[in-house]
UniProtKB/TrEMBL annotation:
The keyword Phosphoprotein applies. Residues 26-150 form the Response regulatory domain. This is Diguanylate phosphodiesterase. Keywords: Phosphoprotein. Residues 492-748 form the EAL domain. It comes from Alteromonas marina. GO terms for biological process: phosphorelay signal transduction system.
Length: 749
């Protein structure tokens, strides 16, 4: 068996013994002396190496030789004249062969008729030149012996080159298999390549098994087999060895145990045990048992050991990929598929399957609060127990995934397998933890995917989450997906896109001023600046449409800065018209936490000529109480500068008397919800609340103003209770600055 057979990887790039007999060794003679060229050919006529004849190809110049070498890869030896068309033509050709063509395998013998033209020793080493001969001193015997030796060297280097190329092919194949996370396909490919490397015939065989450290080697699980063991595609090592006689079986098991115990490859007569470990990644070990009809030579073993490095890398890469896949597609706490897995599965469904599929989202209530109160371990144990309940009760679900910390999703591929009544009962479910019964409260949303065919998988899951969040805000425990939701989301996205443009436009965003009046005298006492958005086509976008989008997208701070600047400009314009009344604008807790916003308030005041007392800030009661310790010092700074502070929507939030009395505010604005009761069926309750707020304001020296007054009855009731200041459509709707000036001037006449 030739070495050529031992390192055979690819039929297209290797030769069988029969091919070798029909082939020949090719050498190239580069010589510009035709007579000497003929002499070389005659000297080499009939030469055979390993029973294969030698064929001589000739070239009369370095240029001609370059063309031949660039188109052929089978030239083993070059007999090269140093001096040809130029004194250094031969060495230039050597540089082209090594550096340009990149052929490091071809052997080069320099021949020259001019002894003084011999290359330096360092040049010989640099270009890997094998020998240098003076033409007149070279005998036929020397020539044939040198050519024979160098052909064998080239043959050996070529086999190593082919082996390396074959190993690279295996590594590439292993990567492809690893990307599919298929250990069986990978190991089958490994067995086929090992058979090629060492020439395992059908009389021999190879077995790959996964070994568990807690079991004996004969109980190792078989993953792949080839050759004489092919009929046993699965099972244990002991099952594979049933047809082997007891002595051979003993030898095999002994060799396998030696390899496993030493954690290294072991070899004996006709048997090889190859050990591979991915303990550092997935705590697994693999053993490959190779049986050959003939004893492996040292060359076989050397090649196999080199090959094993590639196999080991392949096993490790596969283990790492599987680990990454586990992290990417599974929740490690629950050991369940995660959102990425769900989106991948949905994206692989065709239109027909998608139209018949149902996605159910279960949102566990009070997850964060429970985690804070009872700890991470408790809440995760609760979620795992809940997951097990779902697995048991909804076994017909294609998957039950964890898509968020507090959310589980059930995917049904057939709509008739969904029991809505059973799903509805998930809103309140009992689970047992450590023998103690616990109640899990959830919001459940059911969504037929036929409504959103054509949407990306990530959008489908997000839509389900939005639907459940909407149900949770509406205090619903169970909801069916409303197809309008997707349209509403699309509209909000369009609004967001247009809002970006409006913020850079000089005219689209403006403020409208709504008067505040003294109900007893009719005198104008102030105004509130309210944001308005008019598109270039003249259509108005209601604040109720774009303000929630701005808040959700984080644009609200930038919009409030625009309102601040336009409010100060309005105050300046009113002052120039002799209308000196405070104008308020709304801010959020987020604005006050933003250092840029606070600095902009100071800078705007410093750069304008208005009095700080003409600027008023409105903040809702809930916002003011949200972060009292942080917000109140900032409000106090505004008050010290002369800016007025109003608590908007007073009475609807959650505040304590101690905080209200200490809050740096000047005005309380009675919420519209209480004013409206003064002209309705709940008049008595409305009067009671209005009286209470007025007494509180008077007690602590707050100015008080009623907002949302819409009719004469409400006005008269408020006056009767003791209110003087009010704001609402009854007096005037919000209007543009120019209209407000006209209204105010007319009012003062």
């Amino acid at each position: 068996m030739s070495i050529k057979r031992l390192v055979e990887f690819d039929k297209a790039s290797s030769q069988t013994e029969q091919d070798l007999k029909n082939a020949c060794w090719t050498i190239l003679s580069v010589e510009d002396d035709n007579l000497y060229q003929q002499t070389l050919c005659l000297a080499l006529r009939g030469l055979e190496v390993n029973n294969t004849p030698v064929n001589v190809v000739t070239a009369s110049s370095a240029a001609e030789a370059s063309l031949i070498l660039s188109s052929r890869d089978d030239i083993s030896v070059i007999l090269l004249d140093v001096v040809m068309e130029t004194d250094d033509a031969g060495l230039r050709l050597v540089d082209t062969i090594r550096s340009v063509i990149g052929n490091n395998r071809v052997r080069i013998i320099l021949l020259t008729g001019q002894p003084g033209m011999a290359p330096h020793e360092d040049v010989m080493k640099q270009y890997d030149i094998d020998e240098y001969w003076i033409k007149t001193d070279t005998s036929e015997e020397q020539l044939r012996s040198s050519v024979t030796s160098n052909i064998r060297t080239w043959h050996y280097l070529t086999e190593l080159f082919n082996a390396k190329r074959g190993l690279q092919m295996l590594v590439d194949a292993s990567r492809v298999i690893t990307s599919k996370r298929d250990i069986r396909s990978f190991t089958r490919t490994v067995l086929l390549e090992i058979a090629k490397v060492i020439g395992v015939s059908s009389e021999g065989g190879i077995v790959c098994a996964h070994h568990n450290a807690y079991k004996s080697i004969k109980e190792a699980d078989v993953i792949a087999v080839s050759g004489r063991f092919s009929k046993h595609q699965s099972g244990l090592i002991q099952d594979i060895l049933q047809a082997v006689d007891s002595k051979e079986k003993s030898n095999i098991l002994s060799l396998l145990e030696t390899a496993m115990n030493s954690q290294s490859h072991s070899f004996s007569e006709g048997l090889s045990a190859l050990y591979f470990s991915t303990q550092g990644v997935d705590k697994r070990s693999y053993i490959i048992y190779v049986q050959t009809p003939e004893t492996l030579s040292s060359a076989h073993i050397a090649l196999l050991q080199v090959f094993c490095e590639n196999i080991s890398n392949g096993f490790t890469n596969l283990a790492l990929f599987n680990r990454l896949s586990q992290l990417a597609y599974y929740d490690t706490e629950m050991n369940a598929p995660n959102r990425n897995w769900l989106e991948r599965e949905i994206s692989q469904l065709d239109t027909s399957a998608l139209s018949d599929s149902i996605l159910v989202l279960v949102d566990v209530k009070n997850y964060a609060e429970t985690a804070v109160m009872l700890g991470k371990r408790y809440i995760e144990t609760l979620m795992r127990s809940f997951h097990q309940v779902l697995l048991f009760e909804f076994s017909r679900a294609a998957a039950i995934c964890r898509v968020d910390d507090n959310q589980l999703a059930l995917l049904f591929l057939e709509s008739d397998t969904v029991d809505s009544q059973r799903l509805a009962r998930l809103t309140e479910k009992k689970v047992v933890i450590d023998g103690v019964q616990h109640t899990v409260l959830s919001t459940v949303g059911e969504m037929s995917l036929k409504h959103i065919v054509g949407s990306a998988a990530s959008e489908i899951v997000t839509t389900a989450q939005i639907a459940v969040a909407s149900a949770r805000e509406k205090k619903l425990s169970y909801t069916h997906f409303d197809v309008k939701t997707t349209g509403e989301i699309a509209n909000r996205q369009l609004i967001l896109h247009e809002l970006y443009g409006a913020m850079t436009s000089a005219n689209e965003l403006s403020v409208a001023l709504q008067p505040k009046v003294n109900m007893l005298t009719g005198k104008l006492v102030g105004a509130e600046a309210l944001i308005r958005w008019v598109r270039p086509d003249g259509k108005t976008v209601p604040p109720s449409k774009f303000i929630p989008v701005a808040e959700a997208s984080g644009l609200i701070n930038r919009i409030d800065l625009i309102v601040l600047r336009k409010t100060i400009a309005a105050i300046d314009a009113l002052s120039n018209e002799g209308i000196r009344v405070p104008v308020s604008f709304n801010v959020t807790c987020s604005d006050l936490r933003n250092e840029t916003f606070v600095e902009e308030v100071w800078n705007s005041l410093d750069s304008s000529s208005i009095e700080p007392s003409l600027l008023e800030i409105e903040i809702t009661e809930t916002q003011a109480m949200e972060d009292y310790d942080f917000i109140n010092p900032i409000l106090r700074q505004f008050r010290q500068r002369g800016i007025k502070i109003s608590i908007d929507d007073f009475g609807t939030g959650y505040s304590s008397l101690s905080h209200i009395t200490d809050l740096a505010v000047s005005t309380l604005k009675l919420d519209r919800s209480f004013v409206s009761k003064l002209s309705g069926d709940e008049k008595q309750a409305g009067v009671a609340v209005c009286e209470m707020v007025l007494r509180l304001a008077n007690k602590f020296n707050f100015e008080v103003i009623a907002e949302g007054v819409e009719n004469d009855e409400e006005k008269l009731e408020l006056i009767g209770i003791g209110y003087e200041l009010a704001q609402g459509f009854y007096f005037a709707k919000p209007m543009a600055l120019s209209e407000f000036i006209k209204w105010a001037n007319k009012r003062s006449q």
